[in-house]
Amino acid sequence: NVTIPYKQDVMPYCSEITDRAARIGSVNTIVNREGRLLGHNTDYDGFVAMAGRAGISFSGSKVLILGSGGTMLTASAAAEDMGAADITVVTRKGPVTYACLSDYYHYDIIINTTPVGMFPKIEECPVEPGNFTNLKGVLDVIYNPLQTELVKRAKALGIPGDNGLYMLVVQAVKANE
User: Fold this and answer.
1) How far apart are CA 46 and CA 165, in angstroms?
2) Which runs of E-coded beta strand occur in 50-129?
């Protein structure tokens, strides 16, 4: 299994990459098959399962993804496949930055793929969910702590959300398979 920040870096070392991993542009599981390295993306399965467990529907939704790494690529592909109408990626230096976040307060779903809020800095929160007027779901790929500040704040507002532990477990099961 491969984790941040190497999910894109390992791709050139794979002998073959599954169609899904190639489409996403990110590999998180590598299998050695008789000396040939096969790259997979099982994060996709985990992400879809996490969204389903949280009861979040992407159909026709405007999705805001925080972060620019391999997990962002996975979340974006999954959101698109689940019917998102619009997907916008927010980064520190990209075309959409945190400085212009207020332009996206009407979005429906927030996905955090950054390490903001991860142990040991568990008090940090990448965005304030209360600023979003149509928010109907929050997903955070972080699994330590079990509930990030972002998800806690969303749930306090009655907005469904989930952290990345379920995603981690499902992707691990798929990786083991």
Assistant:
1) 9
2) 62-66, 86-90, 109-112
Query: Is residue 74 a contact partner of residue 174, using CB atoms and an 8 Å limit?
Result: no
Q: Are 149 and 125 in contact (CB under 8 A)?
A: yes
**Which residue of the set 7, 136, 155, 174 is catalytic?**
7
Amino acid identity at 157? L
The strand order across the sheet containing 137-140 reads 86-90, 62-66, 109-112, 137-140, 161-162
* Contact between 146 and 163 (Cβ < 8 Å): yes
Is 67 in contact with 91 (CB distance < 8 Å)?
yes
Question: How far apart, in whole angstroms, are the C-alpha atoms of residue 111 and residue 14?
Answer: 29
Cis peptide bond prior to 12, omega within 30° of 0: no
* Residue 104 three-state SS: helix
Angle ∠(7,176,32) on CA atoms, nearest 5: 65
pLDDT score recorded for residue 3: 85
Cα 173 off chain centre by = 18
The Cα 14–Cα 123 span in angstroms is: 38
Chunked mean pLDDT (size 10), the chain, 177 residues: 89 97 96 96 97 98 95 96 98 94 98 96 98 98 97 98 97 95
Angle at 20 between CA 98 and CA 37, to 5 degrees: 110
Active-site residue 7, yes or no? Answer: yes
